[in-house]
Amino acid sequence: MRVIKVKSRIRDYEVVFGRFDLFLNEIGKGGKDSVFYVIDEKVWGLYKNSRFKRLDACQVKLVKADEFKKTLKTVMDLYDALIERSAKKNIVLVSVGGGIIQDVSGFLASTMYRGIKWIYAPTTLLAQADSCIGGKTSLNYKSYKNLVGTFYPPHRVIVDSSFIDTQENLDFYSGVGEIVKLHLMWKEKYLNAILKFLPEAARRNKKAILKAICNSLLVKKAYIEDDEFDQGKRNLLNYGHCFGHALEKVSSFKIPHGQAVVAGMMLANIVSRARGLLSCRLEDRLFRELLLPVLFVKPKRYLLKPQDIIAAMKKDKKRVGRKLPLIIMKEGINPDKINDLEEKEARLALRELSGRI
Questions:
Q1: CA torsion 151→109→216→121, rounded to 10°?
Q2: Which of 29, 76, 135, 187 could form a disulfide with 153 if both were Cys (CB 3.0 to 4.6 A apart)?
Q3: Are residues 115 and 201 in the same domain?
Q4: Residue 213 main-chain phi, psi, to 5 deg
Q5: Number of C-beta neighbours around residue 168 at 10 A
């Protein structure tokens, strides 16, 4: 059994690779009253008669994995469900789903009784390769994305890569987008590896996907163990996110996170090249060989309107001054953070990308 151990100042935890249903006996050994499941309703529909068939309906709360459900209201509904079951502080919360389910249930686990035991089984490629570690829980508030949140890692993560078999291409390539980003964060060490992975991803090669998941988690582990609470180095993991979150917002989340991040990386690279920090040759290579092939959804031109994207970027929680923050890629594949992105630069980058895709 493959295991990745993650160190945390809150609580060390581990990522275990294996079939989720094989862990159910261990998880539920304390009896039905000891466990509460929060499951993506779509995942439940796919597996209720197979890997979930042992679960009692009274133990399960289904949640629609919708960005508009990533709110305090959804968490309050889950509080009510636990209270109705007379849940005690020793209850074990098990959440099964992608990043939205992780955010909602993680926030629930961190705040119910000031913290309850939480096991997370990610079911999307993006969650398995990226968000399942790091300990962040994030909720949207009004028009602000991820404004409210906590740091609270799961006590255990169970990665069952077979969940990806039923993932639609749009969501699958959203995960591939984040895998590309994380491999780039390891500078040139993983560049050739990710280039070799892309054709295997197109074939849904399970062995290659599992290796890419492991590599991605090892990269992220190095960043979060060095800067768990996002005060410095970990900020660099937001490469592609500054423009990406804005694109998600203006598309009303029709463009999924990982795909928006791919477009965001393209835009960040254009800014870096315009500043003379990234060569034309490397920017073009990253665009043609790495990013464009995984841009499964090319944003329509009306979604790249500078005034709309910039307005959304101004609501970025990472913003600390009048100008805009941005993680860029410099020559030699070296990520860096700037806090002085001018609106003019953003407009020029958006117009250029609109003409290239």
A1: 180
A2: 135
A3: no
A4: -60, -50
A5: 8
